[in-house]
Amino acid sequence: MRALVVGGIVAVAALSGCSGQPGAAAVVDGQAISVADVQTATTELAPLYQGVTATAVLQVLIHERAVAAFASEHGVGVNDQQAADALSGIGAQLPAVGERTYSAPSLAVERYLMETKALQGLSSADALLPQLQTRLAAQKIEVSPRFGTLADGATITDTVHPWLVAPTAG
């Protein structure tokens, strides 16, 4: 009985977050990204961008700080107001969305999108982007099993649960 209770506690701890940080979707270089932030950004951005998933949002939030610092160093950093204006511009084109205020995690995702596009557009992009990749690879990243596993040090892949059987058509 005791082994069952201990096993249950270990399972709950493993699924609740990262590295002893309950509620963390990921921890990057000691900084937690909360599950709530991932959920908020996913909910806010889904009407604006097709195919938004929590995993994709988490992937962006994991790398956003490093990309923001790199973009700023190369003169193409984006501030919160620019990101908010861009999101408002997209929302204005979609009648169902209308005027909204966006949370810090949503602004971070939009900054990342704008900064990566700006970095790719630089005349020195061929030389700079490998430097950015090196910086991203150097991050210490831990992802909550709830969101997947970290493959190749940078990409989140879905966690496979062998006890779950995929539904079949018919």
Characterise this structure.
With 170 residues, the chain is α+β, with helices and mostly antiparallel strands. Helix content is 53%, strand content 13%. The strands form 3 sheets. The chain has a 3-stranded antiparallel sheet with strand order 4-3-5. A two-stranded antiparallel sheet has the order 1-2. Helix 2 packs across helix 5, helix 3 packs across helix 5 (104-121) and helix 4 packs across helix 5 (104-121).
Roughly how many Å is the radius of gyration? 18 Å
What's the helix-strand series?
A: HEEEEHHHHHEEE
Q: Gap between N and C termini, in Å?
A: 42 Å
Strand content: 5-15%
pLDDT averaged residue by residue: 85
How many individual β-strands? 7
Amount of helix:
40-55%
Characterize the biggest β-sheet: 3 strands, antiparallel
- Label the structural class: alpha+beta
Total number of helices: 6
Mass-distribution shape: globular
Unreliable residue runs: 1-17
Question: How is the largest sheet built, in terms of strand order?
Answer: 4-3-5
Q: Quaternary arrangement of the chains shown?
A: single chain
